[in-house]
Inverse folding.
């Protein structure tokens, strides 16, 4: 009788040990990024990226300003596309990256903000625009097209170009070339055939349209 009890105890120990090994070998589940209520433009981009990767339109909407949603709805109607397809990449090509891209140069002035994000495909820095609205920072694409967005300072890419031109006057880039090549500070809206807002060409005190 004691022998049978011992066998059962040994067998149970093996089962518990096996179960422990199975669960301990499982990779940790990735922690989901909260979406909404971003307290900084950098945090807002991380939330936008997470929302795009989740392919959850409602989450992406949470990261859009009111004017951006109006813009998205109008563009979808104009292009005969669904609102979901208009919002799928959050209006920025850098969200196509398989992993969270590099973020730098956060700038904030009043309720306007921006960060530069590395666009791996194009090998350029995108200047991503945000506006502080309601519960936090939101994507400001619609505000740009409405003319109510004010650039919170020159992007690092532009400052570096200007500094390089100052150090090397013989290789100075003309203002016309800067205007032509300043795609790092425009909003690459891949689903809408509309002019891109020249963020890179506005001064700190840009006037409203």
């Amino acid at each position: 009788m004691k022998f049978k009890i011992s066998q059962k105890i040994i067998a149970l120990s093996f089962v518990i040990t096996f179960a422990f090994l199975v669960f301990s070998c499982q990779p940790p589940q990735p922690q989901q990024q909260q979406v909404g209520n971003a307290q900084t433009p950098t945090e807002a981009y991380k939330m936008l990226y997470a929302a795009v990767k989740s392919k959850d339109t409602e989450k992406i909407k949470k990261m859009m300003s009111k004017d951006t949603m109006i813009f998205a709805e109008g563009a979808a109607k104009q292009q005969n596309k669904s609102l979901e397809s208009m919002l799928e990449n959050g209006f920025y090509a850098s969200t196509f990256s398989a992993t969270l891209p590099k973020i730098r140069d956060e700038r904030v002035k009043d309720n306007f903000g921006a960060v530069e994000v590395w666009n791996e495909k194009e090998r350029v820095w995108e200047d991503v625009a945000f506006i502080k609205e309601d519960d936090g920072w939101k994507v400001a694409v619609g505000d740009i097209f409405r003319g109510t967005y004010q650039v919170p300072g020159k992007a690092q890419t532009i400052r570096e170009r200007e500094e390089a031109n100052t150090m090397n006057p013989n290789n100075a880039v003309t203002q016309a070339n800067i205007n032509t090549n300043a795609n790092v500070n425009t909003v690459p809206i891949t689903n809408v055939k509309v002019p891109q807002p020249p963020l890179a060409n506005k001064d700190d005190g840009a006037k409203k349209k």
About this structure: The two ends are 92 Å apart (CA to CA). Residues 58 and 206 are 33 Å apart (CA to CA). The first strand starts at residue 103 and ends at 109. The chain is about 40% helix and 15% strand.
